[in-house]
Amino acid sequence: MTDFSPESLAAIGPKEFTQLVKSTPDSKIAEVMASDTRTKILDEVFNRMPTLFRAERAGGTATVIHWIITGGPNGQDTYETVIENKTCTVTSEPGRQPNLAMTMDALTFLKTITGAGNPMMLFMTGKIKAKGDLSLATSIPKLFDIPKG
Predict the structure, then answer these.
(1) Partners of 82 in the beta sheet?
(2) Strand, coil or helix: what is 113?
(3) How far apart are CA 132 and CA 85, in angstroms?
(4) Which of these, 64, 104, 114, lies nearest to 88 by C-alpha position?
(5) Which regions form coiled coils (predicted)?
(6) What does the alpha-carbon distance between residue 133 and residue 5 come to, in Å, rounded to a whole number?
(7) What φ, ψ does residue 72 adopt, rounded to 5°?
(8) Residue 56 and residue 27: Cα distance in Å, rounded?
(9) Digitized pLDDT (tens) for each residue of the chain, 149 residues in all
């Protein structure tokens, strides 16, 4: 497998990224995600989100989700996902009021989006904090094609 770096991530697909997260020790991921390369990795992950969006499953969903990723060299990073009119857009400069805001560290985020961690268990143990429409949080996985690695 490849090394956990922004360059590696840019060169592999979602399924390979899922396998990379699952096979990389948590300490290595935490180290990389606390470094200056963190923003490149998060940008790559969030830029892929619209391509993994399952419009046919969205129905009439119209929502704004803020992903607050803590523990970076400059504090936290916030990304905004907007789902409306069967489309998904993402920005690293949130401008809308969220229906749901989820706060977690980068390791928890990567484990959640790759299926390497159980989101409900991470929420119950306080690793994911959520404010707003909690039922929306449980439906996020069905709106995206999350690769099984």
Answers:
(1) 64, 89
(2) helix
(3) 21
(4) 64
(5) none
(6) 33
(7) -85, 170
(8) 38
(9) 457 777 777 788 888 888 888 899 999 999 999 998 899 999 999 999 999 999 999 999 999 999 999 998 888 999 999 999 999 999 999 999 999 999 999 999 999 988 888 888 999 999 999 999 999 988 888 899 877 65
